[in-house]
Design goal:
The strands form two sheets. A six-stranded parallel beta sheet has the order 3-2-1-7-8-9, sandwiched between helices. Strands 5-4-6 form a three-stranded antiparallel beta sheet, covered by helices on one side. The chain folds into two domains: 159 residues, TPP-binding domain (Rossmann fold), CATH 3.40.50.1220; 61 residues, SIR2/SIRT2 'Small Domain', CATH 3.30.1600.10. It has eleven helices and nine strands. The radius of gyration is 18 Å and the shape is globular. With 252 residues, the protein is of the alpha/beta class. The longest helix has 15 residues. Helix 7 packs across helix 8 and helix 7 packs parallel to helix 11. Bound molecules: 2'-O-acetyl adenosine-5-diphosphoribose. The site of 2'-O-acetyl adenosine-5-diphosphoribose has 23 residues, from helix 2.
Length: 252
C-alpha cells in the first residue's frame, strides 16, 4: 500500500503540467523553527490575542514588537533544510505554477537563492501569504523596509509618523488582495497541489488546495500526521518534509 502510494504520488507529480505547492510551519520544523499548533508549538505557550492581533499592537505595541524581535533572533540562526531545497530545485526545473507559503520565516527564499546560485526566477520564489518577519512596514502608509533591531523608543515611519511594525499578517487582518489573487490563480490552474507541513485550519490559505481540486486537479499531502485536508487528498504521504520531498521530487 505504502509503496503503491509513493508510486502514484510520483506519477502525479511527473504527469502534472502545472504544480503548485502550499507550505506551512511543518516544512521549517526540521530547521528548528517552532510550529504553531503541535506539541511545543507557539500557540501552545503564547496567546495570539496578546501578541498577534491589531488590537494588541495598539494596546501594547512594545510587547508585540519584542515578541517579533525574539522570533527574528531565533530565525537568524535557522537555515533552509532538505525540504526547502528540494522544492526550490523542483521549481527551478519545472517553472509551471509555483510556491505559496504561509510561513514568514524567509527560508524558501534562502533555499531558492542557494539552489539557483544567482537571481532565482519567480516560480522558485515563494508567494508569502502571511508576509515576512524580515521586513517592517508602516502601520499607516504601508511603506516597507528591511527589519531593524528594536531600540528604546518605538520605531516610527519617517514619512507619516505611524508605528513601524513587522510586515506580517496579524489575526483579524486581511491578506494583501493582490498576493492572495496570485496564489488563488496558481491553485485554480494547477493540475496538482502539493500541501506540505500545514494543519490546514487557517483560511484563506487552507482553501487553495480545494481550489485545485474543484478545478479537476489532485492534492498530494506531505505531513507527519493527518490534517483537516487529508480526506480531500488523492494521496497522503506520511513523514518529515525533509525526507519525503527530496524522495518525491528529485526523481520527477
Ligand atoms: P501549524 O502549527 O498549525 O501546523 C503545522 C503542521 O506541520 C502540522 O500539521 C504538523 O503535523 C506538521 N508537521 C510538523 N513537523 C513536520 C515535518 N517535519 N514535516 C512535515 N510536516 C510536519 O502551522 P500552519 O499550518 O503553518 O498564521 O499554521 C497556519 C498559520 O497559523 C500560520 O501561518 C500562522 C498561524 O497562526 C499567521 O501567523 C497569520
Amino acid at each position: 500500500m505504502e509503496q503503491g502510494q509513493w508510486r502514484e504520488a510520483r506519477r502525479l507529480v511527473r504527469e502534472a503540467g502545472r504544480v503548485v505547492a502550499l507550505t506551512g510551519a511543518g516544512i521549517s520544523a526540521e530547521s528548528g523553527v517552532p510550529t504553531f499548533r503541535d506539541a511545543g508549538g507557539l500557540w501552545r505557550s503564547y496567546r495570539p490575542e496578546e501578541l498577534a492581533t491589531p488590537e494588541a499592537l495598539i494596546r501594547d505595541p512594545r510587547t508585540v514588537l519584542e515578541w517579533y524581535a525574539w522570533r527574528r533572533s531565533r530565525l537568524s540562526r535557522c537555515r533552509p533544510n532538505a525540504g526547502h531545497r528540494a522544492l526550490a530545485r523542483f521549481f527551478l526545473k519545472r517553472g509551471e505554477a509555483g510556491l505559496v507559503t504561509q510561513n514568514v520565516d524567509g527560508l524558501h527564499t534562502h533555499a531558492a537563492l542557494e539552489e539557483a546560485g544567482d537571481a532565482p526566477p519567480d516560480p522558485a520564489l515563494p508567494i508569502e501569504l502571511h508576509g515576512a518577519v524580515g521586513r517592517d512596514r508602516c502601520n499607516g502608509c504601508e511603506t516597507r523596509w528591511p527589519a531593524e533591531p528594536l531600540a528604546d523608543s518605538l520605531p516610527r515611519c519617517a514619512s507619516c509618523g505611524d508605528l513601524r511594525r513587522p510586515d506580517v499578517v496579524l489575526f483579524g487582518e486581511t491578506l494583501d488582495p493582490e498576493v492572495l489573487e496570485r496564489a488563488r490563480l496558481l491553485a485554480e490552474r494547477a493540475d496538482l497541489c502539493l500541501v506540505v507541513g500545514t494543519s490546514a485550519v487557517v483560511y484563506p490559505a487552507a482553501a487553495l488546495p480545494l481550489a485545485t481540486r474543484e478545478s479537476g486537479g489532485h492534492i498530494v499531502e506531505v505531513n507527519v500526521r493527518s490534517t483537516a485536508l487529508t480526506e480531500a487528498a488523492t494521496i497522503a504521504l506520511r513523514g518529515e518534509a525533509g525526507t519525503v520531498l527530496p524522495a518525491l521530487l528529485d526523481c520527477c
